[in-house]
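Reviewer 2 asked us to include a model.

Predict the structure of this chain.
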Amino acid sequence: MQWKVPLLVGLIVLGTQVCSCKFVDIDKNLKDFASAVEYAVFQFNEDQEDEFAYKFLQVHRSQRKRLTWIYLMDLEMGRTVCKKHDEDIDNCPLQEGTEEKMFSLLNSTCVERSW
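Predicted model (structure tokens):
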């Protein structure tokens, strides 16, 4: 059995908390949402003390707060045999095992740079 990690992420991307609006389901294939997922996975790996990298496997929930760029996502990730700073982690095989861990990454912020 592969070692998979469900990751619940509340991600703030290019926005501020303007109101207490509700989260609504969005298409998980939207370009902006895909960028937010990529950022969340990168940040998750950077913040872990684990030497092995986790890679994105699947989106279970994709939501956005109305009138903002605040995303709520529930991601499934797997622990790979690659180290976290290796190249091409997306093609790295998953570790085998039966353990599962739950992680939360809340309020990670991504700000667009002015060039």
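The chain has one domain: 23-107. Residues 31-47 form the longest helix (17 residues). We have added this to the supplementary material.
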